[in-house]
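== Sequence and structure of one protein ==
=== Format: two labelled lines per protein ===
==== Data for this protein ====
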Amino acid sequence: MIVAQDIHKHFGGFRAVDGASIEIAEGSITGLIGPNGAGKSTLFNVIAGVLKPTSGRVTMAGEDITGLPPHELFHKGLLRTFQIAHEFSSMTVRENLMMVPGNQSGEGLMSAWFNRGAVAQEERELAKKADEVLEFLTIDHLADEKAGNMSGGQKKLLELGRTMMVDAKIVFLDEVGAGVNRTLLNTIGDAIVRLNKERGYTFCLIEHDMDFIARLCDPVIVMAEGKVLAKGSADHIMENEAVIEAYLGTGLKNKKKEEETNV
C-alpha cells in the first residue's frame, strides 16, 4: 500500500533520515522501532506530508504522493496521530469526533442560514456515528465529558476514534503507548486489532514497548541512524545481533544467554 523509496530528510548538515526505504503492505500492522533519534518520527512525517523529503519518493497504492500536504492525504485515507494527543479540550468527547469529517454543511454560511434542517440532520447522523465509535472503543461513558478531562490513555483512544469517523485506509500511530497504563494499553491494542481484522485498516506504528509490538505487529522494521537496519517478525528482530547492539541492548543478549545456560 505504501512504498517509501530512498527517503532522505536533512536539516542543515544533520541527516535525520538517510536513505530509508520501507514498504507497508495493505492489511498489515507494521511496527517501526529503533532508538531515540533513529529517524522514525521524521520518516512518519515525510510519508504523512508534514515534512517534504530532501529526496526520495513515496507512493500509496501506486500513486505518487510525495510532498502532498496532510489535508490532501487525509482525503485519500492516510491519517497520522501524534505522540501527544491533540484534542479540543473544552469540547465534549462526542463533539471532538463530530468535528472530524470535512465538508460539513454547517461549515458554509449560506447552508447554516437557509438550510438548517439539512444541517441538523447531518449533525444527528454524525452524533450517532460518534456514539458508535465510542462504544466500539469502550469509552462511550465519556461521550459528554470534556475531552480535556480524559486521561492520557483515553485521549489516545479518542485519537484512534477520529480515524474511524472517516474512511481511513492507513493510519500511522506515533508512540500510542507513551504514558498509558497497561490496562488502557491493552484496550488500545484490542481496538487496533479489531479495526485491522473487522474493518480492514492498515496500521504502521512507532512504539518502544516490545511486548506491545510483539503482540500486534508483523512485520517489524528497525531503524538506526536514519537508515533501515532490519525487517522481520518480532521474534526474528529480537534475535538479530545488530538490532540487539543498536537498540535492544546487551542486557537482552545476556538474558538470552542465561536462559540458554539454564535450559
